[in-house]
């Protein structure tokens, strides 16, 4: 995702909510890749560095823990230079049914 000026707060840095949405979306794609409808049950983020207009961000989701119903995810958000700018942890719950028949 590229940070745009209309996504920035009054200080000219990317609004934290936008970074949260990027990380949450990465968790959603990862948790639903198993073809079972999964929804977020909790999430938290730590912002580690400011993000400027034009920065290109990448969010990578890694499964931290799982059982038959819930999964905990760690999402790392990095800029184009490879610097980690945010760390997100969330939990999803499988609520069924299959996404693709």
Summarize the structure.
The protein is of the alpha+beta class.
Helices, by number, come to 1
Listing every helix as H and every strand as E from the N terminus to the C terminus, the arrangement reads: HEEEE
The CATH topology comes to: Thiol Ester Dehydrase, Chain A
Distance between the termini: 31 Å
CATH class category label: Alpha Beta
Compute the average pLDDT: 97
Spell out the CATH superfamily. Answer: Hotdog Thioesterase
Give a quick account of the main beta sheet: strands, pairing sense, barrel closure.
4 strands, antiparallel
The radius of gyration is 15 Å
Adjacency order of strands in the biggest sheet = 1-4-3-2
- What's the structural domain tally? 1
Q: Any guess at the CATH architecture?
A: Roll
Q: In terms of per-residue confidence, which ranges show pLDDT below 50 for 5 or more consecutive residues?
A: none
Count the strands?
4
> Helical residue percent?
10-25%
Quaternary structure classification: single chain
- Give the overall silhouette: elongated
